[in-house]
Structure formats: C-alpha cells, structure tokens
C-alpha cells in the first residue's frame, strides 16, 4: 500500500494516476473486510505470543521474531496478527527498518499451514488467502527497509516472506529455502513466481518452480536467492550491520527507488485480488489437489527414519 501511495504521489497526472487510485481503493475495500477478522484474531490469541518485537528507536529499527511453534507455519490467525504488526511498522515515524527472523531454532518458517488448504470450508479459505495477499502486499510494498535473517528452513510461503524483504542473510547449515509447491502437487501463485523472478531471474525461476527446488544455503547464495551467509551465532549482528548501511541512505530517494522497482509486480495482484482468491479456492477444492495434500501431510507426519 505504501509503495502504491508513494507512486501515487509521484505520478500526479494522467491515466497512471487513475489506475493507481482504482487499485488503491480496491485494496482498501479488501482490507476493511479483514477488520473484524483482526479483532477476532487478537481476542483468540490474547494469551499466545506468536512473535516478539524488539524496537530500538534510537537506532531506528526493530527486530521481529516469528515464534509460532513448532515451525512458524502461516495460518489465518497468525497472518492476521502479522498484518497488524506490519501496519504498525509502516505507520511508525521512528522505525526505518525491520529485521525479520524467527525465535525457533533451525526454522525460519515452514510456509503456509497446510491445514489451511486441506478440507477447508470456502469462507475460511477465502479469508486465509486474503490475509496472505495482504501480508505480501504489506511486506513487498513497504516503504520501510526489511532484512530477512533466515535462521533455518524456509520453504514455500517461508521463502516468499524472505524474498519480499530487501536483503537476505541466511545461516550457514543444513537448511533449505525455495518455492517447493510442485512437490505438494500445487502450483506457485503468479505473485510468488513474480517475486522469485525479480529475485533470481526468469530462467532460474523457471527451473526452480517446476522442480520445486529447495536450495541449500550455499546454492541459494550462488543464485542470489540470498545475499549473504553467516554463522548462526553472527546472523543478527550481520543483519544489524546491513540495516545500519541501508538506514544511512537518504530515505525518500530509497523509498522512491524501491517503489519504482516493485510497483508493476504489486499492481498485478492488487488489480485482481478477488479473482486470485477465487482461483485459490477453486484449485484447492479439486479432488486431485486434496489427494496430493493428504499424501504430503502424511509424509510429514511419518516417523522420521534414523540415519544410522
Ligand atoms: C492457485 C494456488 C493454490 C495454492 C497455492 C499454495 C501455495 C503454498 C505455499 C506453501 O507454503 S505450502 C507449505 C509448504 N511447506 C512445506 O513443504 C514444508 C513442510 N515442512 C517441512 O518440510 C518440515 O516440517 C520442516 C519445515 C523442514 C521442519 O522439519 P522438522 O523436522 O523440524 O519438523 P517436522 O517436520 O517434524 O514438523 C513438526 C510438525 O509441524 C508440522 N508441519 C510442518 N510443516 C507444516 C506446514 N507447512 N503446515 C502444517 N504443519 C506443518 C509437521 O507435520 C509436524 O507435525 P506433527 O508434530 O503433528 O507430526
């Protein structure tokens, strides 16, 4: 939204302005549908702490640590809470940037909660998908600086969170990152795909998405899926060093540059959020998709084989 707003300020006249205005108002309508949901989510989760926020107003940035055990999977309530927090950051005058990480050892995020796609009622499915779209629009479209400190596995929706940031540092170790949707028998949505293309390029994305490739940290560095590797113990320090560097850039120039780079990709989803939600519902309700999801869920729940 903020990027759309900045773009709106810059493009004062002509059809581009009208187009952005219409995109913005569609987005606002979709957001207002989520308001009740947000209240429900904050009531239901009042006793749980699904993430921690450590704000350092002096330095001008915050650290947001995902904390929804066991694997930071993204369900409706969690996304709704995250969206509220992202909005708070966006409105903050003191916070220039956010380091996004996880408090769960070896896991950044396991991506979408598969239970939100398996045998789910249409209403819930559409609320879930709307919340996910909102998270991406807020993160990818943010005026703030987002640095992902990827402390562990980051498949599918977890990868989407990190590639929506401006810079990625990943822990060295036996961790995997990538858009592995085809391995679940599903297709990555076009906005996941486009964010990936913007990060690692068309050809690499074409291979990665078809193969459902999960990259090791070294492989991820080699294709620019991440920008830097760090020993786990140094991850946050490195992210903070990087954040100081980004914070030192003149803000308006950086924001306008970011928005000019991301506007077209964002506009594509903003212009067709409802159709995209319908397509998610239609796709996930297919018998063949439900069967694939069931098999994938079973494979996750199988007792792990001993490597000995
Ligand atoms: C038109 C478009 C339509 C649809 C588009 C949909 C796009 C989808 C995007 C997604 O994000 S789909 C989710 C993809 N995620 C994955 O494939 C990750 C699966 N998980 C793992 O590989 C591993 O769990 C791990 C993240 C590597 C962590 O491994 P670890 O050994 O540490 O944990 P374990 O596997 O034992 O898991 C603990 C516990 O959590 C459950 N789990 C794991 N991931 C998910 C998930 N994404 N959703 C729901 N639940 C998940 C797992 O089953 C275990 O449960 P249990 O304790 O009850 O056995």
General description of the model:
This protein has helices at 2-10, 15-44, 76-91, 122-140, 157-163, 190-200, 202-211, 217-222, 235-247, 251-270, 273-284, 287-301; strands at residues 51-56, 61-66, 97-102, 106-107, 145-150, 152-155, 167-171, 176-178, 215-216, 228-230. It is an alpha/beta fold and 308 residues long. The protein has a single domain (2-301), classed as 2-enoyl-CoA Hydratase, Chain A, domain 1, CATH 3.90.226. The strands form two sheets. A six-stranded mixed beta sheet has the order 1-2-3-5-7-10, with helices on both faces. A four-stranded mixed beta sheet has the order 4-6-8-9. Strand 1 (51-56) and strand 2 (61-66) form a beta hairpin. Helix 1 (2-10) crosses helix 10 (251-270), helix 3 runs parallel beside helix 4 (122-140) and helix 6 packs across helix 7. It is globular. Mean pLDDT is 88; it is low at 1-46. The protein binds ligand LSGSKGXN.
Task: Compile the SSE list and pairings.
Blueprint: H1 2-10, H2 15-44, E1 51-56, E2 61-66, H3 76-91, E3 97-102, E4 106-107, H4 122-140, E5 145-150, E6 152-155, H5 157-163, E7 167-171, E8 176-178, H6 190-200, H7 202-211, E9 215-216, H8 217-222, E10 228-230, H9 235-247, H10 251-270, H11 273-284, H12 287-301
Parallel strand pairs: 2-3, 3-5, 4-6, 5-7, 6-8, 7-10
Antiparallel strand pairs: 1-2, 8-9
Helix pairs in contact: 1-2, 1-10, 2-3, 2-4, 3-4, 4-11, 6-7, 6-10
């Amino acid at each position: 939204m903020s990027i759309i707003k900045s773009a709106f300020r810059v493009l004062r006249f002509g059809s581009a302005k009208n187009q952005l205005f219409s995109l913005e108002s569609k987005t606002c309508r979709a957001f207002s549908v989520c308001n009740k949901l947000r209240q429900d989510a904050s009531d239901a989760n009042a006793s749980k702490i699904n993430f921690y926020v450590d704000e350092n107003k002096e330095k001008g940035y915050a650290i947001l640590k995902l904390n929804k055990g066991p694997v930071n999977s993204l369900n409706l309530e969690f996304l709704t809470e995250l969206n509220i927090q992202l909005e708070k950051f966006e409105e903050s005058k003191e916070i220039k940037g956010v380091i996004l990480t996880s408090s769960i050892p070896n896991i950044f995020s396991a991506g979408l909660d598969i239970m939100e796609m398996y045998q789910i009622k249409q209403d819930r499915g559409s609320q879930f998908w709307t919340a996910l779209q909102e998270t991406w629009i807020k993160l990818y479209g943010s005026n703030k600086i987002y640095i992902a400190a990827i402390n562990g596995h980051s498949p599918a929706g977890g990868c989407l969170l990190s590639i929506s940031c401006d810079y990625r540092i990943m822990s060295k170790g036996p961790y995997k990152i990538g858009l592995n949707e085809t391995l679940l028998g599903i297709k990555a949505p076009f906005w996941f795909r486009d964010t990936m293309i913007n990060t690692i390029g068309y050809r690499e994305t074409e291979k990665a998405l078809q193969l459902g490739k999960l990259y090791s940290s070294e492989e991820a560095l080699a294709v620019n899926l991440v920008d830097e590797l760090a020993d786990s113990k140094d991850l946050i320090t490195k992210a903070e060093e990087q954040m100081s560097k980004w914070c030192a850039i003149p803000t308006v120039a950086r924001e306008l540059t970011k928005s000019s780079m991301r506007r077209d990709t964002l506009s594509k989803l903003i212009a067709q959020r409802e159709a995209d939600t319908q397509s998610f519902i239609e796709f996930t309700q297919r018998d063949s998709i439900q069967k694939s999801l069931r098999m994938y869920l079973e494979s996750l729940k199988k007792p792990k084989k001993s490597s000995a």
